[in-house]
Amino acid sequence: MIPRSWPLVLLFAAAMLSGCVSSLPPSSIKDDASEGARAAQVNVQLGLGYLQRGQKQAAHEKLTRALEHDPDSALAHHAYALLQDVLGETAEAERHFRRAVELDPKDSEALNNFGAFLCRQQRTDEGVSMLERAAANPLYATPEFAWSNIGQCRRQAGQLTEAEAALGKAVQANGRHASAWLQLSEVRLELGQPIKANTSLQRFHELASQTPASLWLGSRIESALGHRDARAHYELLLRGKFPESDEARRLGEMQR
């Protein structure tokens, strides 16, 4: 089964853009930076803010200006790559991602985002390589994002055992990373491990609110376990809480 979206961090644009913005607060603009470098940093901040709000033209103007001020700014290339990906300009996005990690090979945010981008292009080996570089950096504050993306990338490629291992590392790095627990539950069910899948799903529900996806997964897990009443309970919740969801419609089609 191919995942429908990139987590976490993904939900690719929204989560990662948020990460980029928070990685460069105003206080982090270096006092000893050159005038061009400072101007580039300010324009990156403004550009990412516009991009988060969906103002693509304004974002393009600011990020283009950032690169004009400092063509060797890894941050500016990273931000411009995110913009180009949102615009659907895959080749340009890749070119600027690649330049960003060439200029700053230890920038785990850029490595993580580039890796997720490559995985979405079905380039599993290249994507995982970038993501592993991100996760291996001891200074990376959120390695669970990289491990979660590795898990999703492996799962998308049908490499379920490797996906389970990576997602296990994600929750080991941060036991409160709810979406990784949900992914881990899905993978374990696909591996024919409904008991482990159920444990992972319960952990997800301890950390996050019920979603159509989690209730649908719960129904399938209980079905695999042969628990009719528990399955019916999940299905009742799904129809009651999320009657317009794709999962509820799928359930209705199965029961016709």
Second rung of CATH, namely the architecture of the domain at 37-102 and 112-117: Alpha Horseshoe
CATH superfamily of the domain at 37-102 and 112-117: Tetratricopeptide repeat domain
Q: Could you say which structural class the secondary elements and strand pairing correspond to?
A: mainly alpha
**Beta-strand share of residues:** under 5%
What string gives the helices and strands in order? HHHHHHHHHHHHHH
* Helical content class: over 70%
Shape: elongated
Radius of gyration (CA) equals: 20 Å
Tally the helices.
Answer: 14
Biggest sheet architecture: none
Give the averaged pLDDT, no decimals: 89
- Unreliable stretches: 1-28
Number of strands: 0
Distance between the termini: 23 Å
Q: What's the CATH topology label of the domain at 37-102 and 112-117?
A: Serine Threonine Protein Phosphatase 5, Tetratricopeptide repeat
Description:
There is one protein chain. The chain is mainly alpha-helical and 256 residues long. The protein has a domain at 37-102 and 112-117: Serine Threonine Protein Phosphatase 5, Tetratricopeptide repeat, CATH 1.25.40.10. It is built from 14 helices and no strands. It has helices at 11-22, 35-52, 56-69, 74-86, 90-103, 108-120, 124-136, 143-156, 160-173, 178-190, 194-207, 212-225, 228-241, 246-254. Helix 1 runs antiparallel to helix 2 (35-52).
